[in-house]
UniProtKB/TrEMBL annotation:
Family: Belongs to the HEBP family.
Biological source species: Panicum virgatum (Blackwell switchgrass)
Upper lineage: Eukaryota, Viridiplantae, Streptophyta, Embryophyta, Tracheophyta
Protein name, as recorded: SOUL heme-binding protein
Family annotation (PANTHER family): HEME-BINDING PROTEIN-RELATED (PTHR11220), SOUL HEME-BINDING FAMILY PROTEIN (PTHR11220:SF58)
Amino acid sequence: MTAPVVTSGGGEAPSEKIAMTAPVITTGAGAEPEPVAMTAPVITDGQQAPGKVTMQFLLPSKYAKAEEAPRPTDERVVIREVPERKFGVVRFSGVAADKTVREKAEGLRAALEKDGYTIKGPFVLARYNPPFTLPPLRTNEVMIPVE
């Protein structure tokens, strides 16, 4: 990716630009809603309000712990550690349109269940290229957490 993430040292250190990393992981806008057994809608990481997208960026490896990373300058950005998980993954090229992503997720889910894996949550979409990359050269992945 080409755009940097600008962070603030929060008074202790100067601001720092962090090169964007790949993949960019998104939930929402085409991602699978997590089923919730309630009558009112509940928003979770896997179930977004209509039109809302959550993006995850991986920090460079020099930050071994979340608390070592510089503080973001935008309050909407949250840095947190995510525990290690296992995923079933399907890779595809082209534009990651909602219909394509849903089809890939459905196919992957069916294959994982056929092979005896337990699905542990909704799928996420990982994109590896900047938006100006020609569609045939783009790399995308649909990832489903499994046990």
